[in-house]
Amino acid sequence: MSDVKQPKIGHAAKIARPNILSLHPYRCARDDYSSGVLLDANENAMGPTSLPSNSLDPYDNGMMLERYPCPYQRIIKSLLCDYRNSGNGGDIQPENVFVGVGSDEAIDLLIRIFCAPGATSGGEGDAIMITPPTYGMYKVCANVNDVEIQTVPLTPEFDLQIPEILEAVTPKTKLLFLCSPGNPTAKSIPLSDVREIASSPAYNGLVIVDEAYVDFSTTESATSLVTEFDNIVVLQTLSKAFGLAGIRCGFAIGPSDVIQLMNNVKAPYNVNKLTSDAAANALKNTHVLEKNVNEVLEQREEVARKLEGLAFVEKVYPSDANFLLFRVRQKANEVYKMMADKGVVSRFRGNELHCNECIRVTIGTPDENKQFLEMLETVYDEIAN
């Protein structure tokens, strides 16, 4: 059965680009006929030329990789809803979920759907708003799509400036991107802040809450707000806590009218079968996620404690993510580069607002963390002296 529906007339229709509203999802014969002798899609019925290494028979192909994947990803959507609803008592349904090639696809689609281009041609187009320091892809996608970027920075303590945000938005501001927990800040945004912005009559666009690191945080997911508000979209991913960065699978969770528009615009078969299989297995076995997250949190506390004990570390910021942001006394970029040259790679963040002389380090295995701390101390002594 096809999942094609007429888009709901709701908030999304009021702010989406008019040409987008006329689009419908890609359809093919397989939407109506999914079994039998399938000779409709010009696939290679002889089977794939490459299979997982444990398969010897070229026709013993359980995933049927010669066939196009299901464009609707029903299993993944259902599993994600079960997992998220059990965690916060929410009521998101598969119609509230978009599955994409990482959350970056969702970011790009949202900008394409809701923001008319024109930033470089007289300023007639729409705009997004970001709150730096924040994730870089919002700006990249806006620039690619020729969309204006408005900024209201976080405070030096990495908190939102809500009055300033609501004063700065204009009728052109279609999307406000909030990163929670933030990157590089590692700080969660209280749901009360999200509520305040989403319910304000001063802003008529969508509030996009990027929760790539939410499973490392004690702050409740904003997915609990999706069925309450018609202008909140939450981005999530399997790249971080689920440890599946290599399969590129992310989600947008939002009002059904927004999700329908995303499904109308996306490429027909955006998520491949190998990714779908790995994603479904991960969402069926969330006990593994919980175990791994607990280990990361234990290591995060240990690394933070040891960083705080180093005389040249001036500040270790609190973290709700799987990384730590910390400030050294001087020469952070030189420290980062020398450590990388010696085989221990972190990330210099000193070029970000409020992050002067800061380094961001991902929490690794106990052995990796030990190597990082030892190398940091050795290199800093070399550079400082």
UniProtKB/TrEMBL annotation:
SUPFAM superfamilies in the cross-refs: PLP-dependent transferases
Listed InterPro entries: Aminotrans_II_pyridoxalP_BS (IPR001917), Aminotransferase_I/II_large (IPR004839), HisP_aminotrans (IPR005861), PyrdxlP-dep_Trfase (IPR015424), PyrdxlP-dep_Trfase_major (IPR015421), PyrdxlP-dep_Trfase_small (IPR015422)
One annotated GO biological process: L-histidine biosynthetic process
Domain Aminotransferase class I/classII large: 73-375
Enzyme class, UniProt record, top EC level: transferase
Enzymatic reactions: L-histidinol phosphate + 2-oxoglutarate = 3-(imidazol-4-yl)-2-oxopropyl phosphate + L-glutamate
Enzyme Commission number(s) from the entry: 2.6.1.9
GO molecular function: histidinol-phosphate transaminase activity; pyridoxal phosphate binding
Pathway as given in its UniProt record: Amino-acid biosynthesis; L-histidine biosynthesis; L-histidine from 5-phospho-alpha-D-ribose 1-diphosphate: step 7/9
Protein family: Belongs to the class-II pyridoxal-phosphate-dependent aminotransferase family.
Protein name: histidinol-phosphate transaminase
